[in-house]
Design a protein that fits this description.
single chain, about 210 residues, Jelly Rolls, seven-stranded antiparallel beta sheet, globular, disordered C terminus, dioxygenase activity
Length: about 210
């Protein structure tokens, strides 16, 4: 089966000198997107994590995983095929993949930006969506413009420029609607020193449970 679904020109959502935010509604053929979702749901080493937030420790409201792309991948994961599809339209040297599993509408990610020291300029972040559609909000940090929303459809690709992490935040809010499971696969270019230190995953460290 052909991996690509003949992607058309992307929808330009935000502009900046590095490409802003671009959205391809259907990077993958629907059947391929479904197959990739099923394979990732089953074969990924999903982990629950906790993180420090202000003066307390909270559960991250989704499951996570991360993989190096410069090393052999576990069998059954279609990450190389997804990377090939992404690089056909975004030819960046991606070396890390972060995966998020949103189990239902209660799972979310707060408004945030990626820390620039965890990324190699000028390459964009590439986000492939699989499973249920969820709405992402994009909001300028200066508050001078209205936030925009984009429905991240299964098989779609969203690219966010490196420069955008300075000017905007993005997030996916909780919803009371009945929604199915969603997986996001986020490709990033990490600096060599971070990769050498094994820091290809989230920029924050998981909080270890206290031993009684």
């Amino acid at each position: 089966m052909d991996l690509f679904d003949t992607p058309t020109a992307p929808v330009q959502l935000l502009h900046d000198i590095q490409g802003g935010v671009r959205y391809w509604p259907q990077l993958l053929a629907p059947a391929v997107a479904q197959q990739c979702f099923a394979a990732l749901r089953q074969a990924t080493d999903w982990r629950s994590q906790r993180r420090e937030m202000y003066d307390r420790v909270v559960e991250v409201p989704r499951l996570l995983a991360s993989y190096r792309l410069d090393a052999p991948l576990p069998p059954g994961l279609p990450l190389q095929a997804l990377l090939d599809a992404v690089q056909a339209v975004l030819p960046a040297p991606y070396n890390a993949a972060g995966l998020n599993l949103y189990r239902d509408g209660r799972d979310s990610v707060a408004m945030h930006h990626d820390k620039l020291q965890t990324l190699l300029a000028p390459y964009p972040i590439a986000l492939v969506s699989l499973g249920a559609t969820r709405r992402m909000q994009l909001r300028a940090k200066d508050g001078n413009t209205r936030a925009i929303g984009v429905e991240l459809a299964p098989g779609s690709l969203l690219a966010m420029s490196h420069a955008l992490q300075l000017s905007h935040e993005h997030g996916i809010a909780k919803t009371a609607r009945a929604v199915g499971e969603r997986i996001s696969v986020v490709f990033r270019v990490r600096p060599a020193e971070r990769m050498a230190a094994g820091q290809h995953g989230p920029h924050w460290e998981p909080v270890q449970p206290e031993r009684g």
